[in-house]
Amino acid sequence: MLHIFYKDYDLLNTVISEAPPEYKCHVVRLNIHPVIRVLRKVLGRNIHYFHFLSRKIFVPSVYDEIKQVKEGDHVLLLEMILPSEVWSMSRLLPNGCNLYQWYWNPLHKTYPEKNLRKNILFTKMLGFKLFTFDDKDAKDYNLEYHNQFSIRLHFEERFAIKFDFFFLGKTKDRHTEIEEIKNVLRSYGYSLKFLELNDIDIPIPYEENIRYVLESKCVVDIVQKQQCGMTMRPIEALLYKKKLLTNNVNISKYDFYNPNNVFIYGRDSIGDLPHFLSIPYEEIDENIVNKYTVSGWLKAFE
């Protein structure tokens, strides 16, 4: 039996809130107890030294869900990156479980540099096998690489094309690159929908994001500095059969790469962009596409 425990984020609530019907999964959304949220501000990372709090970190309903885990079961943690949370889960789970942790962001953005290797070692010592979407992080920190994934949402209505290019993401350290690409695309007269978010902005529901994808000809993907792994943008373009413009040169290594569908900004000639956008999207083999769905992604944890 596979048990998936994930943090209460809007994105994960949409992507992983229900296991695919072909999988016998037990999916649990982890809500942190309000008292613990307050104590974290006071104690910081030292909270995991207070052993009695290991059974108080989550809201009460979560503990009833954890009791369903049996010896020999598989347990996957999504976005549970704080050592105190991982430590608490390890104490609550029965012995003999197969434990996995999935990192959905670059490690240099997940942990402070001074604690990065220490936190990885700590999680491994608790018995977790660590997976990341970033192949460079996998090599640098001796983790398992596993591809990025997303979900195919189904809508009853049909969507008319409103935009040539669509981008959604936090600005982070990409402001210069975002502005450069916007200016280039505007110089060609393309219609743009760029939603640049800051940490204080209210997150856009994932369903709304996909609606914009469906209303656009091409999805724009701008990776963070030092990031090699794919964001979800290329997967969304793949699942919804949209063109992709990306500055991630590593995209050409993936099995779904097709130069008629993917334009690599900074490598491909910008003069070829009008032709790229004008030619039809070329279908990708469904066996390849399925690797990047939730169902295909979960096979690594069977």
UniProtKB/TrEMBL annotation:
Q: What is this protein called?
A: Lipopolysaccharide biosynthesis protein
